Amino acid sequence: MRYEIINPSDPYTIEGDFSAVAAAVLLLGEGAYGAEPIDPSPELWRKLPVLFVARKPLEVFKQIVGRDFEEIVEQDRDAVIAALRTVTLGRKERSSMNDIGGRAGRLADALEKKRAAKVPDPVPPPGPVVVMGAVTEAMEDFLGVAPPEPGDS
After folding, report:
1. Is 153 part of a structural domain of the chain?
2. CB of 60 closer than 8 Å to CB of 113
3. DSSP assignment string, 55-118
4. Integer Rg of the chain from CA
5. Does residue 152 sit within a domain?
6. How many domains does the structure of the chain reveal?
7. Amino acid 68: pLDDT
8. What pLDDT sits at residue 103?
9. Dihedrals φ, ψ of 112, to 5°?
């Protein structure tokens, strides 16, 4: 299914099954982004809200998705990587310095490298880790990806 990435920046979409998309969006926005289905069918309609406002975002994630974030990243890593690879800008050019598509590619690369190296994923920090998309040291350690520079493509 195709989803709109709910973010304060440019319009982006992502595709995949709900759990892989939810995990990808949580990684991508560190809890500051959500996902809403585009043209949802009533029986498949599921939405991931912006989680950084929650006191315990990983618990809220599990309630919504029905699985632990860590479990999805570990067991469905290929699906999460594939979802990250589908992130597409909804217009010709970015209007924001926030390059969500470029970040999605870097996250997919980082997950592939961890899989190739067979490095176990550490558990992400339990509390909110962002203020509107800023990469924290904790999330940087979790992903092994440096924060993007403004205007990074």
Report:
1. no
2. no
3. SSHHHHHHHHHSS-HHHHHHHSHHHHHHHHHT-EESSSS--SS--HHHHHHHHHHHHHHHHHHT
4. 14
5. no
6. 1
7. 93
8. 94
9. -65, -40
- The domain of 46 spans 2-143
Helix (H, G, I), strand (E, B) or coil at 71: helix
Joined tokens for residue 149 = 């520079």
Using DSSP, state whether 76 is helix, strand or coil: coil
Look at residues 1, 20, 48, 26 and name the one whose alpha carbon lies nearest to residue 125: 26
In a domain, residue 80? The reply is yes
pLDDT the model gives residue 137? 47
Reading the block at residue 100, the tokens are 């969500």
Give the Cα separation of 79 and 82 in Å (integer): 5
Residue 149 included in any domain? no
pTM above 0.85, yes or no: no
Tell me which DSSP letter residue 8 carries: S
d(CA 23, CA 31): 10
- Separation CA 50–CA 21 (nearest Å): 13
pLDDT at 128: 44
What pLDDT does residue 124 have? 52
Separation of CA 112 from chain center: 15
> Residue for token digits 């993007």?
148
Mean pLDDT per 10-residue run, the chain (153 residues)?
90 93 91 83 65 74 90 94 96 90 94 76 48 43 52 49
Q: In what order do the strands lie in the sheet with 88-89?
A: 34-37, 2-6, 12-15, 88-89
